[in-house]
Amino acid sequence: MKQADIYINGIYCGLLTENEEGYHFVYDPEYLKRTDAVALSPTMPLTYVPYEKEMMFPVFDGLIPEGWLLDIASSSWKIDPRDRMSLLIACCKDCIGNISVMPHSHE
User: Fold this and answer.
1) Which of 3, 25, 47, 105 has the most crowded CB, counting CB atoms within 10 A?
2) Contact in structure between 64 and 82 (CB atoms under 8 Å)
3) Distance between CA 7 and CA 82 in Å, rounded?
4) Which is more confident, 65 or 39?
5) 95/62 Cα distance (integer angstroms)
6) CA 80, 82, 88, 91: dihedral to nearest 10 degrees?
7) Beta bridge partners of 99
8) Contact 90, 73 (CB under 8 A)
9) How far apart are alpha carbons 87 and 70 in whole angstroms?
10) Which pLDDT tens digit goes with each residue over 61-92?
11) In this predicted structure, what is the pLDDT of residue 106?
12) What angle do CA 79, 42, 36 make, to 5 degrees?
């Protein structure tokens, strides 16, 4: 099982998990209470209900490099290009835009 902490505008907003069933995202309850909370995307509005999908959620998949940059990232970190979760964690700590992905802190 792989997990990543997801941040929006530098604020922790939820947990992304990959397991044998697929991908799961849940917004942090404390984040949902914030008056300035914003959704990750229009397809993932703010809710206490966990999101589940067999494939990587498009909002996260779109953060992963493509083309020659994917080749460089994959070979540098020795990550299979099909291992989307590992690529997301390795490459998306400081993305263009307001979403950041960090290895799960296991608090």
Assistant:
1) 25
2) no
3) 24
4) 39
5) 11
6) 40
7) 8
8) yes
9) 9
10) 999 888 877 777 787 778 887 888 988 888 87
11) 63
12) 100
How far apart are alpha carbons 39 and 13 in whole angstroms?
9
Tokens of 62: 């779109």
Please say whether the beta carbons of 16 and 23 come within 8 A.
Answer: yes
Q: Is the pLDDT of residue 107 over 60?
A: no
Q: What are phi and psi of 68, to 5 degrees?
A: -65, -30
**Which letter does DSSP use for residue 21 in this model?**
T
Token duo for residue 67: 């083309």
CA atoms of 54 and 57, how far apart (whole Å): 9
Give the chain's length: 107
* Beta carbons within 10 angstroms of residue 93's beta carbon: 13
Q: In what order do the strands lie in the sheet with 51-53?
A: 51-53, 22-27, 11-19, 2-8, 99-103
- The answer to whether the CB of 8 falls within 8 A of the CB of 102 is no
pTM of the full predicted structure?
Answer: 0.89
Three-point CA angle 96, 100, 102, nearest 5°: 140
